Amino acid sequence: MPIGIQRLNAHQTHPNDRIVFIKPLPGPTAPFAQDFLSRIAAICKPIMAAAHISVMTLEEHEPNPEFVGRNFNAGEIVQLVLKAPRTGNWLSFRSVQMVMMHELAHCIQMNHGREFWKVRNQYAGELRELWSKGYTGDGFWGRGKTTLSDQYECQGTWENEIMPERLCGGTFRTRRSGKRKRGDVKTEQLTDAERKQRRIEKKFGKSGQALGGEEELRVKLEHGKKPKGKPKVA
């Protein structure tokens, strides 16, 4: 589990200690979606552990014609679509597992570049190896099926559905406020005289006048003695 997070009073064995929260969409199929996501999390555990990946929230996203997976802030939130957009049928369990590999790769490489596909293909290969070994998770999740899994696995489909245009809905980073970095805005170049004038205006205002600014007044203030230096401005 990510550093600083500790799970207390869990109602059942958590499938993956590297995923903190698992959230289905509210509604009548929420228990099945919870089971679906939990089994996805369970089989991902060794892959995530080996890559030192953590996900704060794994959640279901509503069916849509655009995508089947998204990743926010390199694993802060991973969203998976579990149902086909037109029919509402459950998607193939193994296909959604492969979408999860895609989104986990975004925790390492945010953009769909060469390095991203290298990581994604590595995770996909590791997942296929787990399939060949019959691995489905540790402990309770190692049984493979659950009392709810038949509900969505018997409907599982992929090829016969009209699927979203893109597998991945993209990756997103939260724009954080902070101090501007050097180079973001060009600083105005001022001479010493200009900087001094700005200090005067800041202290006395544009219509103000520094004492001793006129030569005759300065001599009078010094009792007839002509000062050598010019008055200093704070």
Describe this structure in words.
The chain has 6 helices and 5 strands; from the N terminus they run E-H-E-E-E-H-H-H-E-H-H. A hairpin with a 4-residue loop joins strand 3 and strand 4. It has a 5-stranded mixed sheet with strand order 1-2-4-3-5, with helices on one face. It is rod-shaped, with a radius of gyration of 32 Å. The protein is an alpha/beta fold and 234 residues long.
Topology:
Layout: E1 19-23, H1 30-51, E2 55-61, E3 69-72, E4 77-81, H2 93-105, H3 114-133, H4 149-153, E5 168-172, H5 192-204, H6 215-221
Parallel strand pairs: 1-2, 2-4, 3-5
Antiparallel strand pairs: 3-4
Helix pairs in contact: 1-2, 2-3
Mean pLDDT: 78
Q: Note the beta-strand portion.
A: 5-15%
How many β-strand runs? 5
Low-pLDDT windows of residues = none
Shape: rod-shaped
Radius of gyration: 32 Å
SS summary, helix count = 6
Strand order of the largest sheet: 1-2-4-3-5
> Structural class given helices, strands, pairing?
alpha/beta
The main β sheet shows up as: 5 strands, mixed
How far apart lie the N and C ends?
A: 57 Å
Task: Please trace the helix and strand order, writing H or E for each element.
Answer: EHEEEHHHEHH
